[in-house]
Amino acid sequence: MKELHISAAPHIHSGIGTGNIMLDVVIALVPAAIMGVVLFGTKALLVLATCVVAAVAGEAIFNLCVHKKQTVKDCSAVVTGLLLGLNLSTNVPLWQCAVGSIFAVVVVKGLFGGIGKNIVNPAIAARVLMLLTFGAVGGGANPVRFVELESTATPLSALKTGVDGLSAAPSLKDLFLGLHGGAIGETCAAALLIGFVYLVVRKVIKWYVPVAFMGTVFVCYLAFTQDPVYALAQVLAGGLVLGAVFMATDYVTTPTTGAGRVLFCVGAGLITFAIRQFGSYPEGVSISILVMNLFTPFLEQWTAKKTLGGIK
Amino acid sequence: MLKRKNISSLHVPHNKHTAACVPERLPVPSEVILPMNMHSGHDAEPIVKVGDYVRVGQLIAREEGRFSSPVHATVSGTVAEIAPIPTAKGGTTLAIRIESDGKMEKDPDLKPPVVNGTEEFLQALRESGLVGLGGAAFPTWAKFNEMCSGQYTVDTVLVNAAECEPYITSDHRMMVDHTDLIVKGVEYLRNNMMEYLKDATFLICVEKNKPDAIAKLREALADKPYAKVHELEAIYPQGAKQVTLYNATGRVAIAGKRFPAFHAVIINVSSFAKMAEYMETGMPLVERIVTVDGPGVKTPKNFIAPIGTRISYLLDHVELKGEPGKVVIGGPMNGNAVVSVDSPIVKVSNAVLVFDEKHAVLPDATNCIHCGKCVEKCPINITVWAVYGALQTKDEEAKEKKLIDTGVRQCVDCGCCSYICPAHRPLLGWNQEAKGWLKKYAAAKKEKEEGKKG
Lengths: 312, 454
Hints:
The structure holds 2 protein chains of 2 kinds.
Chain A: H1 18-40, H2 42-65, H3 76-86, H4 94-109, H5 122-134, H6 155-159, H7 172-177, H8 189-201, H9 208-225, H10 228-236, H11 240-247, H12 258-278, H13 285-302
Chain B: E1 24-25, E2 31-35, E3 45-46, E4 53-54, E5 59-62, E6 71-72, E7 77-86, E8 92-100, H1 117-128, H2 140-147, E9 156-161, H3 170-177, H4 179-192, H5 194-197, E10 201-207, H6 211-220, E11 227-232, H7 241-249, E12 264-268, H8 269-281, E13 287-293, E14 301-306, H9 311-315, E15 324-329, E16 336-337, E17 351-356, H10 357-360, H11 373-377, H12 385-391, H13 396-406, H14 416-420, H15 427-453
Parallel strand pairs in B: 1-14, 9-10, 9-12, 10-11, 13-17
Antiparallel strand pairs in B: 2-8, 3-5, 4-7, 5-6, 7-8, 13-14, 15-16, 15-17
Helix pairs in contact in B: 1-2, 3-4, 3-6, 4-6, 4-8, 12-13, 12-15
């Protein structure tokens, strides 16, 4: 008789691997991607495709070069590429999209040791890099369908002027449906919320994490302006929903404890508010998440769970 | 009742295919192999020689030390060999091989023990060879002996019938087919330990997925105000003693304290029934119910098998789906994979699970993605993912501190972390490595300090 396999307990597994989780994230991003293409046309499809292909190819080639086990099957490069693409506007040249994607998977993730080892979110780091080197990456483009917009200003730059800017910004309904200028995947809050519900139902993320982020921004603006419509417009405009649902929930770069995750989001919300309100730049989501990524180990330690019956 | 915060747990598929299978008595095997380490303490010491004729129930190895337990012949026949065999933990242990004469002749000297008072009762339990049949293999007498040490007052006897591991139904069948033994067990224990258990409540803790057992026990215990059936949610690891204690009584098992310090004693339901059987017949622990199931078994069954029966012999009596890829003794969450089907079943072997080639190998481990599911699902809230990193620490003092900070010392070995880990990381294995290292390090440190003083 042939030899039996020997392994340590347990001998069964839930069947949900890293790849399944990443695939769930991809699926959750599909509505936003579809809406992006519907609103911004084929150029949007090209941007998304370029980012995904560059990310996957970049990771595959990197693994080959450093003789690491091939990891593209875990879909995490697809997630990174797709997220980055959704964070870019159709005005960004395709070569810049490719450079950003490769930077994300190779420099931010690969060089740190691959999936799970990066300290900041690859898509966000790439977006910020592109922002600093190439200039405006999120704004500038308008939907090619459904709306006739004259100005190329994003809702956030309109809102930047304060509560008075509300009249220049799209209506809450248009903000919710995505009928305004911005990055491909950030404008349609409705599509992002479908993805949010999907991730919660599939138990990939906890509902309170994005809610804590968006809630913090909302409460800050409400307290500051006493105008709920303006506060809501601030939540729906820009990359907040996209960032809160898909980037502040990234496992690798956020704390593992519930309390830590909430604190992470509250911190990110406060920074977003501060940048949007007092900074020179209209958008603050990416930078706030990037900053909070660096706080993760600290938050983790601070909110470590007490063991059952353990003495601390 | 006060609403308590739930302990983290998993919904593992139950796969209790054999719940309705009345155990079949296995035809007498041609030989049995009885290892000397079927309990948690020191190995037992053989008292027979090769060539001796032994009968069922005859003492063949006596206990050595406090938490040891004697071994009895489980078939009648001739002692053929006393030689070391490999153990699941990697070492070796002596084992007595008995060639059966097929007669299953009982030792004529066996008679129900006559006991007066707690001391004699404990002595009888000691001689019965009974150990915790749920998996701990802690000698039953030692458990009650500890309870009687005078340091503890026990108000609850938890009879652990959770059987939360998938596939296994041996405890379940014991409750359904031998309800009377459990009722008698309550009486024997209570009457013989009146001094300690006068006001104690007996809680038979059963998971809700065994409604037939619950109904039968409820009926049988109806006239006993001091014994109740306590229904538990069917979740894993409900049967881990810390979890059972919390879910049945609301008490938290404080780390580093002995179990009776929580005013409770916990005993597996099959051990409990076997205790009653021994008190009635005088027959020590020589056979048990074994579930034979798993993804590689076509016709899962329950058997009553002599302890020491080779796994291969059990497998001969079920239909397999093909060549076995992995064979596990115990549950799929907690059991040990055996090197060979020639290995025997031992006192705690409640199940033999066969995994076909497809289910035998789990995917390789990949990088931790920091999802936190291991912490979320840990019943004890250990920061499981941090254990691996802490184990890599070079500086021993820092390593000790880091490991202790994760809470790993309290790990109950349930395996929820490994089961849920999307990166397929062997987290339970690292927890065990960490616990082992911490124990060794603490012992070495103590020795060093004592050396300094001396």
